[in-house]
Amino acid sequence: MIEYSRQPHYLVAVDCIVFGFDGEHLKILLVKRGLEPEINKWSLIGGFVGADESPDDAANRVLKKMTGLEGVYLEQMQIYGDPGRDPIERTFSVGYFALIDIHKYQAQLNDDYEAEWFLINDRPKLIFDHNQMVADARKKLRYKAALHPILFEMLPKKFTIPQLHILFEEVNDTKIDTRNFSRKITSTGLLIKLAEKDKTGSKKGAFYFKLDKKKYIANSQAFLNLIPNLRV
Amino acid sequence: MIEYSRQPHYLVAVDCIVFGFDGEHLKILLVKRGLEPEINKWSLIGGFVGADESPDDAANRVLKKMTGLEGVYLEQMQIYGDPGRDPIERTFSVGYFALIDIHKYQAQLNDDYEAEWFLINDRPKLIFDHNQMVADARKKLRYKAALHPILFEMLPKKFTIPQLHILFEEVNDTKIDTRNFSRKITSTGLLIKLAEKDKTGSKKGAFYFKLDKKKYIANSQAFLNLIPNLRV
DNA sequence: TTATTAATTGTCGTTTTGACAATTAATAAT
DNA sequence: ATTATTAATTGTCAAAACGACAATTAATAA
């Protein structure tokens, strides 16, 4: 009856830009393909959307498979669907960016892929339109992180203000005054100061903080102003 | 060689939430389907993505066909892809929201569809997950409009501050002090005051303004703070 | 001429911002 | 033990932004 069947059918995939932070620099997780086409080339973590799963399900499945992690911060970015973006067959890909605590990551044994962390500013060329995806993801991460408290997702449970500070500078690619930053971030009320100090970075040591989960969830949609003189 | 062919294939569509403003209220454009399934039910403007077009192309094509308009403000929202969202066959849909000047709209003769404007707060139930799409689009419109100067897209070339004011209140579903709003919106530097006045709404008349195109383009990504006490 | 109405400009205390300085808490060197 | 050193933390302050609220203005209608 209806024309559905006459319409062309396509493959639908997901690709994840996985961001991590090693304490100094922003990194992304890439995989070396063990399959044709583009065998041995670096690419984003991705996979086809199965018959019984949503794109979100697929992204979570792929992430679990490649990082061993579940319930990570995952945000849909946009769809990539130019005809010809995949040389084999027309494929739509839903781009996601993920934020993970790099220390929780554990390499998964996998015959098809070989995963590796790269500095965001020193990464290999990627297949297809994956380079564009990374650029878009970075832009969106910067945008979102300027307004919402999401960067905690890349830090361990316990973290210090200086750690946060470096992360913010790294993501926004700018210098931020430590004194003003400290005041701003604590004034959000999202942090709980712990008794313990991290002495690895300095003689004085920096107090550990943890997230106030309740407030974090309640404020996840709130607008903040974490970046001075912000212009996107 | 590669497994692509063994993967399931799907339909990919676009659906557009078309927003307009009649001077008093926010409206959306809906169509009555003349096709099975869900014949005679109201739905969003949409269509399948053709073999040689991107989702953006498809959205523009569909909009042109249903409104007669080209080059309208169009923004990708998210993909809808739950299995079973379409009862006939698995279909992914890329949701877009569009902002148009309602007065430029002209009904298109179309055998398959019948289009009509509805008040955003008094609209019929829609097919499939289209109700969710409208809710999402409204939320995103509100979010975006709070930070970026996009609502001009729904007004004529010449507009008055009071018109803008009503539109902002309508989109954000809140009362905004006229005096502070006027000061804020003019201080963005995006408006050029014209000599002419609009006398239809009051005795004193309100000055017409037009957009400073150059500054508008340059600032389209700038953060503004147009809504007082903003909490999303 | 006056009343009316909505647009526009003005006032002002409070809060936020961001540039910059001073202090503090630890360890390492003397 | 004392001092130097270093990074974390707290402090200062002037300028700008914010938002609650009042007064004035420009037109038409009575």
UniProtKB/TrEMBL annotation, chains A, B:
It comes from the Bacteria. InterPro entries: NUDIX_hydrolase-like_dom_sf, NUDIX_hydrolase_dom, WH-like_DNA-bd_sf, WH_DNA-bd_sf, WHD_NrtR. Coiled coil: none annotated. SUPFAM superfamilies: Nudix, Winged helix' DNA-binding domain. Residues 9-148 form the Nudix hydrolase domain. Pfam families: NUDIX, WHD_NrtR. PANTHER family: ADP-RIBOSE PYROPHOSPHATASE (PTHR43736), SLR1690 PROTEIN (PTHR43736:SF4). This is ADP-ribose pyrophosphatase YjhB (NUDIX family). It comes from Pedobacter zeae.
